[in-house]
Amino acid sequence: MHIFKQLHQDTTSKARLGLLSLGHGEVETPVFMPVGTNGTVKGMFHEDVRKIGYKLILGNTYHLYLRPGLEVLDQFGGLHSFSNWDGNLLTDSGGFQVFSLSGLRKIGEKGVTFQSHIDGSKHIFTPESVVDTQKVIGSDIAMCLDVCTPPEISHRAALEAMNITHSWAQRALDHRKALGESFRGNLFGIVQGNFYEDLRKQSAEFFNEMDFPGIAIGGLSVGETSEQFSHYLQYTADLVTRDKPRYVMGIGSPDYILEAVENGIDMFDCVLATRMARNGAVFTDDGVVTLKKAMHKFDHGPIEEGCTCRACTQYSRAYMHHMVKTGEMLGGMLATEHNLTYFHRLMENVRLAIRENRFASFKRDYLARFYGK
């Protein structure tokens, strides 16, 4: 199944424009995807997420499986209907969340057993059950169950984890095919291999040969150094086929996003924009502004001139400072709308720079201003 079309290749880098054709409409790439872990982008109405311009958001299989649970989602015909979201939905496999549970989970060839972080109840995810769960959710893009590993593990441990990931991927793909038209979502594979070049190469070649409509580059943004991230992002991206959409999970700072785009990555997501907003930190072209600082107490101006969000068009920095200082939930809501508006505009500017074959200079100038270097 072909869901991706490359529209233009930047002449100054490996950045490219593309179009994703999904069950709930087309999506221009490169694309940043807001995270809606529990079926909502925290602090936002879905209609406002749509108005900003987002057509693809994330849900989390692990959290949705536990709450509200598959029976509820099935009764409502999936998460789109349950949450009143008519755009596209990507769900991760839950692999990263289970990885984060550490002592509460055990990985085996069959799958992964884990204890709920909510009530301690025991559960098992298999490659097949995770596909079934995402079928109930109604995911437009579903991720395979994989083994996520931290940096600095041994080559032997990384090899074992990669082999399990490959085995699970084949089982998930077989199960997806057996479901046929009853599951309309697109199943993506996830390249692993930790921070070992030979394993990364082996994993990329494995997934290139498989019948997945898209490929994610996993095992990045898991606590490694920025130098490791840069090296293994570029190394792996050069190995993964460019015939399919390519996705790096969990990156959300402007420098990481632009580096991913520069290496031909089409999709990325992160909780950073929304989490920072709830803590009173907002993005501008001149860097991150901390609204709690006293310097904003008498500031009549907006967070950023020209921004179209409600925080900037209807309120002053002084009011935002007051909202954040007093812990009013409106402060976090307005800051979230601002940050998501900011990242949507950033991606529009990124796509324009690619279209005009000037992405390399755009990246250089943007980062120099944002980080003040």
Describe this structure in words.
- The mean pLDDT is 96.
- The protein is α/β, with parallel strands linked by helices and 373 residues long.
- A hairpin with a 6-residue loop joins strand 1 and strand 2.
- The strands form 4 sheets. An 8-stranded parallel sheet has the order 4-14-13-12-11-10-6-5. A 3-stranded antiparallel sheet has the order 1-2-3.
- The protein contains 15 helices and 16 strands.
- The protein has 2 domains: 4-270, Queuine tRNA-ribosyltransferase-like (TIM Barrel), CATH 3.20.20; 277-370, no CATH class.
- The protein starts with a strand and ends with a helix.
- Helix 6 crosses helix 7, helix 7 (155-179) packs parallel to helix 8 (197-208) and helix 10 (254-262) packs antiparallel against helix 15 (359-370).
Summarize the structure.
By secondary structure, this protein is an alpha/beta fold.
Topology readout:
Blueprint: E1 4-9, E2 16-22, E3 25-29, E4 31-34, H1 46-52, E5 56-60, H2 61-66, H3 70-75, H4 79-83, E6 88-92, H5 95-101, E7 105-107, E8 112-115, E9 122-125, H6 127-137, E10 141-143, H7 155-179, E11 186-191, H8 197-208, E12 214-217, H9 226-237, E13 246-248, H10 254-262, E14 267-270, H11 272-278, E15 281-284, E16 287-290, H12 310-314, H13 317-325, H14 329-355, H15 359-370
Parallel strand pairs: 4-14, 5-6, 6-10, 10-11, 11-12, 12-13, 13-14
Antiparallel strand pairs: 1-2, 2-3, 7-8, 8-9, 15-16
Helix pairs in contact: 6-7, 7-8, 10-15, 11-14, 13-14
